[in-house]
Amino acid sequence: MTGDKGNKLARALPGSSLDDRLGTDAKLDSSSQKRIGDQLRAMYDELMQQPVPDRFKELLDQLDKKKDGAQ
Q1: Stated pTM of the model
Q2: What are phi and psi of 17, to 5 degrees?
Q3: Which of 1, 7, 46, 67 is 20 to 30 A distant from 20 in Cα terms?
Q4: Where is the composition biased (Basic and acidic residues) (predicted)?
């Protein structure tokens, strides 16, 4: 995902307009919901492709050993 896509989603509201909108329920149209969902899935899929760092594997092993010893 590129930074340009994120910039298109962000919009600044004038201060007085923001105060008026804080009391209303926030709602997104279906196309915005779909776009956000697609972007979140793309980011999550990319994250899941990354290898688990060795240090995290060591910590998980230590937790498993403690868990097995406590039972």
Answers
A1: 0.39
A2: -65, -40
A3: 7
A4: 18-28
Domain regions of the chain by residue span = 31-71
Contact 5, 39 (CB under 8 A): yes
**How do the pLDDT tens digits run along the chain, 71 residues long?**
455 555 554 555 555 555 566 667 778 899 999 999 999 999 999 889 999 999 999 999 999 999 888 76
- Give the Cα separation of 39 and 7 in Å (integer): 13
DSSP, collapsed to helix, strand or coil, labels residue 3 as helix
Residues contacting residue 46 through CB under 8 Å, at least 6 positions apart: 1
Considering Cα of 65, then 66, then 70, then 71, what sign does the dihedral take?
Answer: negative
At 60, is the secondary structure helix, strand, or coil? helix
pLDDT of residue 64: 94
